[in-house]
Amino acid sequence: MRRIYFITSITITLILLFLLGSRTAFVLEDRDYNPSNLLRLHVIANSNSLIDQSLKREVRDKIIESSKTLFEDIENITEASNIVRDQKDHLIEVAEQVVKDKGFNYKVDINVGMRKFPTRTYGNITLPSGDYQAVNVVIGEGEGANWWCVLFPPLCFVDSVEESSPEILKAKANQIDDEKIDIQFKFKFVEYIKKHPDLIKKNLKLAEIFSSSK
C-alpha cells in the first residue's frame, strides 16, 4: 500500500511540474512574438542584378550576426530600437565593410522606422500584414528586391525568405520553437523546485518511508 501511495505521489508531482513548465513556456512564446513587440529587419539591394542580390545577402548575414550581441539581455522593442539607433554608425560601418570587401563602393543607409509588411508565416508563427517597427538597410540606390525577417526577438534565418521553400522555413521555425520551449521548460522546472523545497522534501521523506518498509 505504501509503495502504491509513493509511486502515485511522485507521478502526480512530476505531471504537475511538467504541465506548469510547459504552460509557462508556451505563454512566453506567445508574448515574445507579439506583433507589438517585434523589430523587423528590412534589407534592400542596390539592384536586381545577380551580383547585387548576392551582396545583399552578404550584408544581411553580417547585420544579423552583429545584432546577436547587441540584443543580449534586451526585453522589449523600445530597448532594441534604441540600441540600433545608438549603434547606427557602427552597423553602417560593418555593412559598408562587407560592400568594400566585395569590391564595390556603394553607400549603406540604416534607419529605424515604421514600414508596411505583408502577411508572413515563419513556421508556427504568422505575422499579419500591417505597420511594424523595422531596421531598414538600404544598399546603394536601393532599387533591388528586398529581404525581411524578425530581428528582435530573433527569427532571422540564414536563407532568404524569397529563396526558401515553405517546408524549409517551417522546419527551421519549428526547430527554433522546440529549442526555445525546451530551454524555458528546464529553467522553469529548476525555478519551481527552488521556490517549493517543501514539496521535494516531502517526496524524499516518502522515499525514506518506502525504503524502510521493505
Please provide a written account of the structure:
The chain is globular. The longest helix is centred in the N-terminal third of the chain and has 31 residues, at 2-32. It has helices at 2-32, 50-70, 77-86, 88-101, 166-195, 197-212, and strands at 39-44, 108-117, 120-122, 125-127, 130-139, 146-152. The strands form two sheets. It has a four-stranded mixed β-sheet with strand order 2-5-1-6, covered by helices on one side. The N and C termini lie close together (12 Å). It is of the alpha+beta class and 214 residues long. 57% of the residues lie in helices and 18% in strands.
Average pLDDT metric: 71
Q: What structural class should be given to the helix and strand makeup?
A: alpha+beta
Strand order of the largest sheet: 2-5-1-6
Share in helix: 55-70%
The share of residues in extended strands comes to 15-25%
Unreliable stretches, pLDDT < 50, 5 or more residues? 18-32, 158-188
Q: How many domains, as an integer? A: 2
The SSE string, one letter per element, is: HEHHHEEEEEHH
Number of helices, where a helix is a run of at least 4 consecutive DSSP H or I residues: 6
Alpha-carbon Rg, integer: 24 Å
| First-residue to last-residue Cα separation | 12 Å
Q: What composes the largest sheet?
A: 4 strands, mixed
Shape: globular
- How many beta-strand elements? 6
Organism: Orenia marismortui
InterPro entries: Spore_II_R (IPR014202)
Pfam families: Spore_II_R (PF09551)
Protein name: Stage II sporulation protein R
